[in-house]
């Protein structure tokens, strides 16, 4: 199946700094990618839809100025957590799919803000 | 909101078949039933999907009732590595539509 790669897999940052997470579709082009967040013992929560060449669409309650999404090419979307705080510590996961196939997920990024 | 309901947890003996149920009584005509699983601290892994016919692949079988209001994922010979949270999701077969996750079923395979 198609491969989606996420980097880094784990990051620790100081409170107030920004962190960038990359999501790449390795063997296909994805006009749309999705970003999720998962807190311990909870399910995945959709944060935003990343559209190549246009602005991302954010779910209700997700601050667009805090979670900056850039989808500059058909194989790369980035999520930047700006001015991170301990409550932003979570497991961030991206996904992508071809037009009419199942979605494929990255391996996830565990962010710890100290 | 997720359109599916699943039991929160299930146990299965190693080597036996694991049957995971899912209710999706409000499924629309153009929505498929997808199954994913998530092993601890990893991204979800695709298992199988179907519209109305039963489906089988190398990982599992999917049985969808005739009225499409429920389905069952079958892992024919569960192994310890099948221990994971299993998510049943309904969605149109469109790459531009996100998967909306419910709480899933935590399957524990016991030796």
What's the gyration radius of chain B in Å?
Answer: 13 Å
> Order of helices and strands of chain A, N to C?
EEEEEEEEEEE
Order of helices and strands of chain B: EEEEEEEEE
Tell me roughly what share of residues is in helical segments of chain B. Answer: under 10%
Radius of gyration of chain A: 13 Å
Poorly predicted parts of chain A = none
Provide the β-strand percentage band of chain A. over 45%
* Strand count of chain A: 11
User: How much of the sequence of chain B is in beta strands?
Assistant: over 45%
Count of helix runs of chain B:
0
Task: Give me the side-by-side strand order of the main sheet of chain B.
Answer: 1-9-8-3-4
What is the typical, i.e. mean, pLDDT of chain A? 93
Description of the structure:
The complex is a heterodimer of chains A (114) and B (111). Chain A is an all-beta fold and 114 residues long. In chain A, the strands form 2 sheets. In chain A, strands 2, 4, 5, 6, 9, 10 and 11 form a 7-stranded mixed sheet that branches. A 4-stranded antiparallel sheet of chain A has the order 1-3-8-7, with no helix packed on it. Chain B is mainly beta and 111 residues long. In chain B, the strands form 2 sheets. Chain B has a 5-stranded mixed sheet with strand order 1-9-8-3-4, with no helix packed on it. In chain B, strand 5 and strand 6 form a beta hairpin. The radius of gyration of chain B is 13 Å and the shape is globular. The chains are: A mainly beta (114), B mainly beta (111). Chains A and B meet through strand 4, strand 5, strand 9 and strand 10 of A and strand 3 and strand 4 of B.
